[in-house]
Specification:
- By secondary structure, this protein is of the alpha+beta class.
- The protein has helices spanning 6-16, 30-41, 71-78, 87-98, 183-192, 209-215, 226-234, 319-336, 368-376, 399-409, 412-415, 472-481, 483-486, and strands spanning 19-23, 48-52, 62-65, 107-108, 117-120, 142-144, 147-152, 159-162, 165-170, 173-177, 199-205, 239-242, 249-251, 256-262, 267-270, 288-300, 305-308, 342-347, 356-361, 386-391, 416-423, 446-453.
- Helix 3 packs parallel to helix 4 and helix 4 (87-98) crosses helix 8.
- The structure holds flavin mononucleotide.
- Residues 145, 160, 162-165, 177-179, 182-184, 216-218, 309, 318, 352 line the site of flavin mononucleotide.
């Protein structure tokens, strides 16, 4: 694999011209808002943004946003070809590679760069780092937004790494927000709190981008550690250190690691925090009680790089990365069901979590499109989601083409399915606050999902009205003959 850790990776990003440096910004809203502007309004490829000399902090205590905010950075991370970096090509390469990967468990070591500095006892201070407050309406500062939370299943022994946001309460205490259905949530509530057991927890920031890629997507099943999956992608084991306080393995080359514990029955107000879909949709601007993390120890490298994500109205720092990840995860699931004829999948940048997914298929039998749509619709999105099935002449990533298929090929009375009572949780912005519960763990919420079959009816597809679109042969001929006309106009 091309990189040993985040620092190594960032050197390549700098050499490629995809790293932007900003000095002297304030951790309070300014840093996050600069990134928000770049990612929503800036040109592609969006750079990774490194902040230094942040207000109130010594030079060298840096923040890094948008680690995987370009297709080239995603391709480089996953060891994919770096010459074709349009989103569909990267998704396609990742789809092919992901089928071949074998898991490699991590290697335990006794030292590593993350142990260069430590803070324990009275010295514990999570605000030693320029932890941002991201948005104007956020109440707190968020330590964990581009990190992983490390927990161990006490029965099965496997270790989960998941990106669940972590808010600073005070210098020695934080709050954990893992939503229902997430492995970290199940472990917290079912495996520890329900049995009145104290839960050891570790948080690692500034991860190898492969581990970061894995920690924030749903493709690693229950019972499989993201450490093993990361080793598989890298082709070599990740190095981990066994934590002195928790016994949990944490990455030896991370930038910052926290060890701590959560006690059953100990909750604290968390939020409000601007979410990935662009709303304060948990309980609006009201806080929600979430588990307290008592911090026991902090380890960090010299001149640490504190990684961050800026969720906001999309597109934002992690929409592109989740579009690629979700597209491939959906395709793999259809494959696992043995569904033939799937040509490509694209999960559009609607925040994250696969909320508008388009699948192109070659229709092979009656009900094929509906079968694909119904299976794919259950991809674990956190809100209601749309699944649109189109034919193979439509590029799922091209919204013009997708809309054309939707408005011309579907008989709307027959080809739209609304599936009520599917999985969702408190972050759904279309569910009014009065229908949500004080804690999302009380009564599970559900929401509808929509499947749109935008394929021509198979029974008369071959007699369908002719399409007024030039043939591929004529296109090639014209592009060649009229080069001077198309030069600089068609890329
Ligand atoms: C930047 C970012 C922040 C996220 N924050 C949260 C969060 O606060 N809570 C949560 O439950 N999921 C959050 N997610 C989604 C989870 O990381 C994702 O669903 C992941 O698959 C969870 O891991 P698991 O499948 O092991 O539970 C976030 C994802 C990203 C990319």
């Amino acid at each position: 694999m091309a990189h040993a850790d985040l620092r190594d990776f960032i050197q390549a990003v700098e050499a490629r011209g995809e790293l932007k440096h900003v000095a002297g910004a304030n951790w309070d809203v300014e840093m996050g808002s600069i990134v928000e502007l770049i990612y929503r309004e800036g040109k592609h490829p969006k750079p990774a943004v490194m902040f230094d000399e942040t207000t109130g902090y010594a030079k060298g205590f840096r923040n890094l946003f948008g680690v995987l905010g370009s297709t080239w950075r995603i391709a480089r991370t996953l060891g994919l070809p770096e010459d074709k970096t349009d989103p569909m090509s990267v998704a396609d390469s990742w789809y092919k590679k992901s089928r071949e990967i074998r898991r490699i468990p991590p290697k335990f070591v006794t030292s590593g760069p993350v142990l260069e500095n430590s803070l324990t006892g009275d010295k514990v201070d999570v605000l030693k780092f320029p932890v941002p407050r991201f948005h104007e309406l956020d109440k707190g500062r968020y330590f964990g937004t581009a990190h992983c939370v490390i927990q161990q299943d006490p029965d099965e022994g496997w270790v989960n790494c998941g990106t669940y946001r972590v808010m600073v309460v005070d210098n020695k205490t934080m709050a954990l927000h893992a939503t229902p259905g997430k492995h970290g949530n199940i472990m917290t509530y079912e495996k520890y709190f329900a049995r009145k057991k104290v839960m050891p927890i570790a948080i690692a920031v500034g991860l190898d981008p492969v581990l970061w890629w894995l920690s924030c997507q749903t493709d690693t099943p229950w019972g499989v550690s993201e450490y093993d999956a990361a080793g598989g992608i890298k082709g070599e084991p990740l190095e981990v250190i066994k934590g002195e306080y928790t016994g949990l393995p944490f990455p030896a080359r991370a930038e910052v690691v926290v060890e701590g514990e959560c006690h059953p029955g100990e909750f604290v107000d968390e939020g409000p925090f601007g979410e990935w879909h662009g709303y304060y949709a948990n309980r609006g601007l009201l806080p929600v009680p979430e588990p307290v993390i008592r911090v026991k120890a902090i380890y960090y490298r010299n001149n640490p790089i504190f990684t961050c994500s800026q969720p906001a109205v999309p597109p934002h720092t992690f929409t592109l990365m989740l579009a690629v990840a979700d597209s491939v995860a959906i395709r793999r699931r259809l494959e696992a069901f043995g569904i033939p004829g799937v040509k490509s999948v694209w999960a559009h940048y609607t925040g994250s979590g696969g909320l508008f997914n388009v699948i192109s298929i070659q229709q092979l039998y009656s009900g094929h499109a509906r079968q694909v749509g119904l299976i794919a619709s259950q991809y674990p999105a956190e809100c209601g989601a749309y699944t649109v099935v189109v034919e193979e002449d439509i590029d799922p990533s091209n919204l013009d083409q997708v809309l054309w298929a939707m408005v011309t090929r579907a008989r709307l009375d027959r080809q739209i399915e609304i599936l009520p009572y599917c999985h969702t949780n408190n972050v759904h912005p279309a569910i009014p606050l009065k229908e949500k519960r004080a804690t999302e763990h009380a009564v599970p919420l559900t929401a509808a999902r929509v499947v749109i079959d935008a394929c021509r009816d198979l029974s008369w597809k071959n007699d369908w009205y002719p399409i007024a679109r030039m043939s591929p042969e004529l296109r090639t001929k014209l592009l060649e003959k009229w080069k001077s006309v198309f030069s600089g106009v068609i890329g």
